[in-house]
Specification:
The protein contains 15 helices and 16 strands. The protein has 471 residues and is of the alpha+beta class. The chain folds into two domains: 304 residues, Bira Bifunctional Protein, Domain 2 (BirA Bifunctional Protein, domain 2); 98 residues, Anticodon-binding domain (Rossmann fold, 3-Layer(aba) Sandwich), CATH 3.40.50. The protein is elongated. The chain binds one RNA strand of 75 nucleotides through strand 6, strand 10, strand 11, helix 11 and helix 13.
Length: 471
RNA sequence: GUGACUAUCGUUCAACGGUUAGGACUGCGGUUUGUGGUACCGCUAAUCUGGGUUCGAUUCCCAGUAGUCACCCCA
């Protein structure tokens, strides 16, 4: 990675921006006192913020392929696009994602607006989606209501590769149906997308966490079980026992693996309905022959999930796992926000990670249509005519490359050659005077002078001949 | 939030406690006048920021910032 340049020409004295921040402080949401900026921000003009990044033109063909695949899949499965604000009232996330989750406690981008409102950049899309669902009375629409969305989400965590403070997600969600077949269909859709993107070695991990009540029961049981043998756990897991006991089941230490071998299973703590739901889901998945494994440790970092949760993972040859996306049911969420009780299921794909994975596995990016004709001009009069000629050709369906800013014919031809065009149209002083143009076949090197009327046909003829030769 | 490693032209890789910080790729221009490849020539362009040690720092030390990795967590 390139080191970012730092602008330091306009260094001013270390004047502070004033102390009026205090007056805005509200106490309904606890915020840590913001530390003073650690750098002279005037020097940081030319550096992206930590965890933020530019997606440059070179990378766009990968993103374009992703966008296209998402558009296709959403159409095939009947999802309608919705775009949501990136900023919402902070409370929306406290209520949905949940206080106590890392996403809210540690990673939420919190702000006070000038008007004094407590707002947050969205750390995920489901909350906003549910808000919109209720706000616009979508409950009256015929079920299931299928919505998808693409956009950036924000989490203030520590960046590394495939992990950014601003990253892009695609979300697919269905409202209004309880049937586990929708869970299966959701996973099927997720699989369809990554398949269309040419990703291999994809695996789903599925689990059911039942209701919040049954999950709490399970955690209690697990803690009770492990507490008894606490000192046999590794240091790390001893802390996990308090903070997040289910994580212990994921530990790589031998002693912890052995200890947890006979530990209680989350699936045994499901209520009857959830268990039945899960059983049906698995049957559907088997029927679809989707690559999945049951991962009883899979929890996900959001409070609103009920019953089904899943993750899409890519496995590389070293057996390393990358999570590309995940989702699950959230049957209680709409109701808990004050809407009518509405079951729902959805998932998010991490687009940055998908692009990363495409590069890693050398998937072909989307190919833009390339211009096959170059327009070169020479001299003032020709230059004047060139813009008009360009638009005439373009209207006739000929994609043109040019370098109007250049003077010499030689340098223009060099560009034409670099672009790999098959035809170059040249107008010079002479051609401009008698309304003709030179049509040069870049492959054979031959050229002829034609009138403007015949220009389009002449160019197309060469392109066609080349195409025939290729076949 | 914790720890570790790293930081030189747009990209990539050199170099040194001391002269104009070097190469490759890319870009721009040229090798006579209105014709592209290759070749040859030229030009542009960098030591992340702030302090310290030193006669002298890009090099050594400290801090900041950023990136990468592991943890935490997640997409």
């Amino acid at each position: 990675m390139a080191q970012k340049k730092v602008f330091h020409g306009a260094k001013k004295s270390g004047e502070k921006k004033g102390n009026d921040k205090k007056s805005v402080a509200k106490k309904n949401i606890a915020v840590k006192k913001a530390p003073a900026p650690s750098v002279n921000q005037e020097e940081m003009l030319l550096q992206t913020l930590r965890g933020m990044r530019d997606i440059l033109p070179d990378e766009q063909p990968y993103w374009e392929r992703v966008r296209k695949a998402l558009a296709h899949a959403s159409q095939e499965y009947g999802f309608r696009r919705i775009d949501l604000p990136t900023v919402e009232y902070a409370h929306l996330y406290l209520r949905t994602v949940g206080e106590g989750t890392d996403i809210v406690d540690k990673e939420l981008y919190l702000f006070n607006t000038r008007g004094g409102d407590r707002v947050a950049l969205r750390p995920e899309m489901t909350a906003g989606l549910c808000r919109a669902y209720i706000e616009h009375g979508m409950g009256v629409l015929s079920k299931p209501i299928k919505l998808f969305s693409i956009g950036p989400v924000f989490r203030y965590d520590r960046p590394q590769e495939g992990r950014y403070r601003e990253h892009w997600q695609a979300n697919f969600d269905m409202f209004g149906e309880n049937d586990p077949i929708l869970d299966a269909q959701t996973i099927q859709l997720a699989y369809r997308v990554v398949q269309q993107l040419g990703l291999k070695n994809i695996e789903f991990q599925v689990n059911s966490i039942g209701t919040p009540e049954s999950r709490r029961e399970y955690e209690k049981a697990l803690t009770r079980y492990l507490e008894a043998q606490k000192n046999k756990l590794c240091q790390n897991c001893r802390e996990r026992l308090v903070r997040n006991p289910m994580r212990i089941l994921d530990c790589k230490e031998d002693k912890c693996i052995q200890l947890t071998f006979h530990a209680p299973q989350s699936l045994d703590y499901l209520d009857l309905e959830s268990r039945d739901h899960f059983k049906h889901l698995l049957e559907y998945l088997d029927e679809l022959e989707l690559p999945y494994t049951i991962n009883t440790r899979l929890v996900r970092g959001l409070d609103y999930y009920t019953k089904t949760v899943f993750e899409i993972r890519s496995t590389d040859k070293d057996g390393k796992n990358y999570s590309l996306g995940g989702g699950g049911r959230y049957d209680r969420l709409i109701e808990s926000l004050g809407g009518e009780a509405t079951p729902a299921i959805g998932f998010a794909l991490g687009l940055d990670r998908i692009v990363l994975e495409m590069k890693r596995t050398q998937v072909k990016p989307y190919q833009e249509a390339r211009p096959r004709v170059f327009l070169a001009q020479l001299g003032d009069m020709a230059k004047k005519k060139s813009l008009k000629l360009f638009s005439e050709l373009e209207k006739n369906g000929i994609l043109i490359a040019e370098s109007f800013g250049r003077g010499s014919l030689k340098s223009q031809l060099r560009v034409a050659n670099r672009l790999g065009v098959e035809v170059t149209i040249i107008i010079g002083q002479k051609e401009a005077l008698d309304d003709t143009a030179i049509v040069k076949d870049m492959v054979s090197g031959t050229q002829e002078t034609v009138t403007h009327e015949r220009l389009v046909d002449a160019a197309k003829k060469i392109l066609k001949t080349n195409q025939d030769l290729r076949v």
